[in-house]
Specification:
With 513 residues, the protein is of the alpha/beta class. The chain is 42% helix and 11% strand. The chain has 17 helices and twelve strands. The protein has a twelve-stranded mixed sheet with strand order 2-1-12-11-10-3-9-8-4-7-5-6, sandwiched between helices.
């Protein structure tokens, strides 16, 4: 296997062949360019190169075009002639058609294996971002997560969180003394947001069995890295869900993987397509945390490649960490476009043979301005590059071909059936039922007492004042529920043997190794 990924070359009018060194592939990258300039094909050939080198890949298929990675290209295709011509022009002598090991995933479970995580693993920060909560509402969500962690109530799916929020609302008077004001209006707003998320199909994301990261980092029998393709054509209808899921996955990789320093090749390459969705309207605190993850995750052996229309979509501090760059054409129709074009050109190491800004504006479809990290991680001189043709099929595959890939997958039985084990919803329901049963038993016991004793138990006074039975029952039931809950909490906390829940940099549960 090669220690480089071939990106493209040129011929007389272009520079030398461009190779992406696997040793520096975990220094992250950028694939940018206007719509229709060739970003998808670049993403496809990079995925092929990493896979052939034994590096697993995760990418999202926004338009459905990348499913063709699972099928070899064909000499009978209409692009065979241009492909062969380009391969000869750039010196791609060993070009051939080939299929690659692909695993399909889908949050909705229709075009791939279902992808799930738990509400606890998502964490309050990312969930607040997903639900677009206000600061006050996010504070209440943090209280709910704290209570669930302290009381040993797993939050696995949305009904767990909904039940916990109902309980927080019922106990808000006591909880407000410890955690600050908890308003019914804010709880109601969170519940409405959860309902919207359910209606958008987001409920399927939360539950078990949860995705195991090791299933994204596999190779096939020939040592080629598996290409994990997330079907995102439907998911893009909910862009906030799409961005939050990918950010959660990135944070899980960061929290779960051990430090490996600078390996000879990445353990996984993660492509974040439509990257601008991650940063649109994102609070600065979240952007800062994303920057921190991007900066530190390279030491875990993970390379992150942002795919977007304009480099200006990426915050400057994150953009500065992207060492390997493929810049397709940018259109400069407005003043803002011209400014973005100039800034993009200034980020490259100049080539005396041409003007970078002019080249970015003039490169055609399938061409790009490229710069790859070289020895000691130094950026290479910018080059005009013809992107190599893909070996796999260009464009989407048929439904029959997709079903065949899914049927052949050894993961088809692992994630298909959802599990619903005992969690916060069941625990709270059991406590409420136990408290209600105790209250009913006490009421029945009072009814069986002699009249005088029953009058006393019902809080009648000989002065003529009587406490309403319904009111006494209500007070007694609330008190019994609180006592039962306190006893259950003590039992739950004893059962944790003092183990504390620790949340990571983006709010998900930190998994100690």
């Amino acid at each position: 296997m090669s220690d480089e990924v071939f990106v493209g070359g040129g011929g007389a009018a272009y520079g030398d062949k461009q190779w992406l060194s696997l040793k520096y592939a975990n220094r992250h990258g950028l694939v940018a360019g206007a719509t229709g300039t060739g970003k998808t094909v670049t993403l496809q050939i990079l995925a092929e190169g990493f896979s052939a080198a034994g590096v697993p890949v995760f990418l999202s298929d926004v338009k459905g075009d990348l499913s063709g990675l699972a099928v070899a290209g064909s000499a009978q295709g209409k692009l065979h002639g241009p492909f062969m011509e380009r391969a000869a022009k750039i010196g791609f002598d060993d070009f051939s058609y080939d299929a690659f090991p692909v695993t399909f995933w889908d949050l909705f479970g229709r075009q791939g294996h279902p992808v799930r995580t738990t509400v606890s693993d998502m964490g309050p920060l990312l969930l607040s971002r997903l639900l677009e909560l206000t600061e006050a509402q996010e504070g209440i969500l943090n209280i709910a997560f704290r209570l669930a962690d302290e009381q040993g109530m797993p939050l696995l799916d949305l009904k767990d969180l909904q039940a916990l929020l109902v309980w927080v609302g019922e106990q808000r008077a006591a909880l407000s003394l410890r955690y600050g004001n908890i308003s019914v209006q804010s709880i109601g707003a969170i519940q409405r947001r959860l309902l919207v998320l359910e209606n958008q199909g987001g409920a399927g994301l939360f539950g078990e069995p949860a995705l195991e990261l090791s299933d994204l980092m596999r190779t096939d029998a020939n040592g080629r890295g598996r290409i994990n393709i997330l079907a995102a054509n439907e998911l893009m209808a909910s862009p906030r869900l799409y961005a939050t899921f990918l950010l959660w996955l990135l944070s899980e990789l960061f929290e779960d993987l051990p430090e490996v320093g600078d390996p000879d090749k990445p353990r996984l390459v993660f492509f974040f397509d439509e990257a601008h969705l991650l940063f649109d309207d994102a609070p600065k605190a979240l952007v800062d945390k994303v920057e921190q993850v991007a900066r530190l995750i390279r030491s875990k052996g993970v390379g992150v490649y942002f795919v977007t229309q304009n480099p200006d979509d990426i915050p400057e501090d994150i953009l500065g960490q992207l060492g390997n760059r493929v810049q397709h054409a940018l259109r400069a129709f407005t003043a803002r476009d011209r400014k973005a074009l100039k800034l993009a050109a200034e980020t490259y190491r100049e080539n005396p043979a041409f003007d970078t800004e002019t080249a970015i504006r003039e490169v055609g479809v399938g061409e790009a301005v490229t710069s790859m990290l070289q020895k000691k991680g130094v950026p290479g001189i910018v080059q005009r590059t013809l992107i190599r043709p893909p070996s796999s099929q260009l464009g989407s595959i048929s439904e029959a071909e997709r079903k065949a890939v899914l049927q052949a997958s050894d993961l088809k039985d692992k994630y298909t059936t959802a599990l619903d084990r005992r969690s916060a919803y069941e625990i709270l329901q059991e406590r409420a039922n136990a408290a209600a049963a105790a209250a009913e038993a006490e009421e029945a016991e009072i009814e069986d007492q002699p009249p005088i004793q029953r009058e006393f138990s019902a809080a009648r006074r000989y002065s003529g004042t009587r406490v309403s039975r319904s009111r006494a029952y209500s007070t007694r039931r609330a008190s019994d529920f609180g006592d039962a809950m306190a006893e259950a909490v003590i039992k739950e906390l004893k059962g944790t043997t003092g183990r504390r829940i620790v949340r990571g940099i983006l709010g998900g549960i930190f998994k100690a190794r």
